[in-house]
Model the fold of this input.
Amino acid sequence: EDKVVQSPLSLVVHEGDTVTLNCSYEVTNFRSLLWYKQEKKAPTFLFMLTSSGIEKKSGRLSSILDKKELFSILNITATQTGDSAVYLCAVVPGSGNTGKLIFGQGTTLQVKP
Amino acid sequence: DAGITQSPRHKVTETGTPVTLRCHQTENHRYMYWYRQDPGHGLRLIHYSYGVKDTDKGEVSDGYSVSRSKTEDFLLTLESATSSQTSVYFCAISPVIDSPLHFGNGTRLTVT
Done:
């Protein structure tokens, strides 16, 4: 059974801290891994990773994928209160042509002033 | 919101009643998905569509049916709502398989 596990499930930090969120997976014929940020409403897309070892970066956020060890990390440096959210990791299995995502449980990040 | 509208935004209904949730998109995307989100489970796929009248089941499809009679609309129906279907329902769309999904703002459904 395809599975995505995120850790930690929740995290509280102070502004300025650096955080690392983890995502491990077991899926059939891995195709890609995505990170989303969810505040009050809809998850919003952050990164999509398909190749191992390549870092995707956007401002203070970055992510890397290790296809050999079957995990990804999402780093946030110099955290701000606006980074408080649920961060979701999702994987697209390669079997079938559906594009459907399998999600982890999410990591709830709270950034205190 | 990438041109996705979900309706209603909130709904309270009684056990045993039928309920239909609507997802409307203005992006002309081929792929549409219905997910539910529950504490401790993340987002789980209910049904998806890969074209007009082309749909298939996801991992938690029992008790749900869908229809897609035109590109822009994807309907999710609970034939006889149960309390276990109390959840937040998200619709998502994508133009092609390898493109990230974009989500609507969700429908909060409470079954009493």
Summary: The longest strand of chain B covers residues 42-51. The CA atoms of residues 82 and 98 of chain B lie 35 Å apart. The two ends of chain B are 30 Å apart (CA to CA). Chain B has a mean pLDDT of 94.
